[in-house]
């Protein structure tokens, strides 16, 4: 029964990854169809991210009242509904409105399942959980590129992904009885639950941990959102090809997390993170070389580097802060991560209008340096 439940948990994380790479791969076509500037994608991602921040911060209370299973199931329903709306919306401002339920759903899924797996399963399953996010994030640019190539446009791509999301929602409804054998973790006298009134800055490692999630998500989401536009504008690659090249980045994440899961019971979280940082730095350096060929090599290497960092940092959370505190801490970490998503992608969109999209690899290189420094602080508390 535990193995069967894991399958449904993995499916839920596929649903989390499916929309995450869809906007970036479709945006070169979307902004022309909607007659809005290229930088307007940043506003949509900002609204999505604000929703994820709010749902991440309140997820702890909601999960304690309703349980992980119910929160996850309703969150997938919200994202499926939002994706269907994206496919049908005639205006840019309609997309902005629909970004609200998508963000609220995504943040709750992320917080609920990350803590559930960190508490009840090994590091192997945490990496495979995020591998499933990579499956969704890799699949959607491929589906979008196929839709664009075959004349169905970006709306056809969104409609197809919305259908897949709806199927996953139905599967999660079927899985609800399987969750009851796992009790939700409650606080003890020895490990009091973090509350909104607790001075978080007094918790050792809190600042370094939240900074790491802020920078990591800023890096990953900026790469996912703007890679396609960078390849079209900066490397003269066609719109349809660029949409599918974006999948190389997510394919690297998916593959890397699968093998990180294979190695996780023999290699420490810390060693996996350090290896990932090295690959990420090398991939970013390759992206600085101004040719389309090196970009194609750089993207999967960057994905491989990103692969173990996020899940391994999350899996360390119960050990670092205690099991009873982990749900709240992961909520704050997710909120910090989505704050990075809120600020950096639209900021880069604004910079493309004032400086140019060639700044893209330099921005990523700077984020890699900051991320490395923040993680070093966590590991040397």
UniProtKB/TrEMBL annotation:
It comes from Levilactobacillus bambusae. Belongs to the major facilitator superfamily. The chain crosses the membrane at residues 34-55, 67-86, 92-113, 125-144, 156-179, 239-260, 272-289, 359-378. Residues 5-381 form the Major facilitator superfamily (MFS) profile domain. It comes from the Bacteria. PROSITE patterns: MFS (PS50850). It is found in: Cell membrane. One of its GO terms (molecular function) is transmembrane transporter activity. Keywords: Membrane, Transmembrane, Transmembrane helix, Transport. It is a multi-pass membrane protein. GO terms for cellular component: plasma membrane. This is MFS transporter. Pfam families: MFS_1. Its main location: membrane.
